[in-house]
Design brief:
about 240 residues; mainly alpha; Four Helix Bundle (Hemerythrin (Met), subunit A); globular
């Protein structure tokens, strides 16, 4: 089957996401923490399983991908009967809009996985992850912290670099700038000066590469940020 990624970019995405995924599973499951904190755990469960899909697609293990998709569908069905109440913020869109976006992303993931389209499945899974975090934030603003969101956004840069989708990448990098501003104190508390500088340099290099439409450099620098996020180990404080 023809793969949707070129070897170089695909290797960066596969290796770094697999490493991050394996490391996260050594920590307490975010969905377990959500249950403990009386938050809607099914949304974090969706995010976790979407991460599993991104890590598994490069291996070609489609039965395992399908199992993740089924788990996402089950979690989404559970969400239809929530046991917690949302905490809306002024200026945020109605929860129904966020819910519709996630429903569309889940449907797209089902289609791409059934077609065994590697590139489309990874892109759809990353969109599911990001939309699940957005909807979760509607319930508990500020949780989970933006370390996880930064990882989703940098992974999107790798995906868009392969597709040479510079228009979408521009919006993604704008979001990275704002997320990095918010998450920088968290990283500073966990990283040494060299690591902090590496974060700054790689994010700045992505902005420069976008101006010249240098897709390989964009993918490489985003991969560096994913590796740095894994180095600081904990996706949740």
């Amino acid at each position: 089957m023809r793969c949707g990624f070129h070897a170089g970019v695909f290797g960066i995405c596969a290796a770094l996401v697999l490493l991050t995924s394996c490391h996260e599973r050594r920590e307490e499951s975010p969905s377990v923490a959500a249950i403990r904190d009386n938050m809607p755990p099914m949304l974090l469960r969706i995010d976790e399983q979407a991460d599993g899909i991104v890590a598994t697609v490069p291996t070609g293990d489609w039965p395992r991908v399908f199992a993740y998709v089924r788990d996402i569908n089950d979690a989404w069905a559970d969400y239809e009967h929530p046991t917690t109440s949302p905490y809306p913020r002024q200026g945020r869109p109605p929860g129904s809009m966020l819910k519709s976006k996630l429903a569309a992303a889940v449907a797209a993931l089902q289609r791409e996985a059934m077609a065994q389209n590697p590139g489309g499945t990874v892109r759809a899974a990353n969109e599911v992850s990001g939309n699940a975090l957005d909807l979760f934030d509607y319930y508990r603003p500020g949780f989970p912290p933006d370390l996880r969101r930064l990882r989703v956004l940098e992974r999107q840069v790798v995906i868009d670099a392969e597709a040479r989708d510079f228009n979408n990448m521009s919006g993604t990098l704008n979001r990275i700038t704002y997320v990095w501003r918010d998450v920088r104190p968290t990283v500073l508390a966990r990283a040494d000066d060299a690591t902090m500088q590496a974060f700054e340099d790689n994010i700045a290099a992505q902005e420069a590469a976008l101006r010249t439409r240098d897709a390989p450099t964009l993918a490489y620098r985003a991969g560096n940020v994913l590796a740095l996020l894994d180095e600081i180990q904990h996706p949740y404080p």
